[in-house]
Amino acid sequence: MNIRQIKLELTVDLLNQQNTRKPIRFAKKAMGKFKSQVGSYMGLLEKGTTKISDAIERKSFALQFEYCTLNLDLVTNRESNIQFVQGFDVTAN
User: Fold this and answer.
1) 68 contacts: CB under 8 Å, gap ≥ 6
2) Which of 12, 30, 63, 83 has the fewest CB atoms lying closer than 10 Å?
3) Number of CB atoms found within 10 A of residue 11's CB
4) In the chain, how many H helices and how many E strands?
5) Terminal C-alpha separation, the chain
6) pLDDT of residue 19
7) How far is CA 53 from CA 72, 77, 93, in A?
8) How far is CA 85 from CA 26, 49, 76, 77, 91, in A?
């Protein structure tokens, strides 16, 4: 598994996304391009939430695949229900 290549292509995909309201679904779909390397999707785990202000919060998720985990940090505006990817990391299992 070439984690460096996965991170690079996922970065490009996230930068080119069309203002999606569902970044988790978008990231899962983007990881599907690497199914032979990452394996099948196993599940989603919410790791934590941090309140930034009354309307803004940061949530951390782990998208688990057979051979790796995509850790995804999202910033959510609860009033408009818009989410943005703040950062991510891919780690081998």
Assistant:
1) 1, 3, 6, 37, 38, 39, 90, 91, 92, 93
2) 12
3) 13
4) 3, 4
5) 11
6) 67
7) 20, 9, 34
8) 11, 14, 9, 12, 17
What phi and psi values does residue 17 have, to the nearest 5 degrees?
Answer: -65, 150
User: Distance (Å, rounded) from C-alpha 77 to C-alpha 80?
Assistant: 6
Condensed to tens digits (0 to 9), the pLDDT of residues 32-70 reads 999 999 999 999 999 999 999 999 999 999 999 999 999
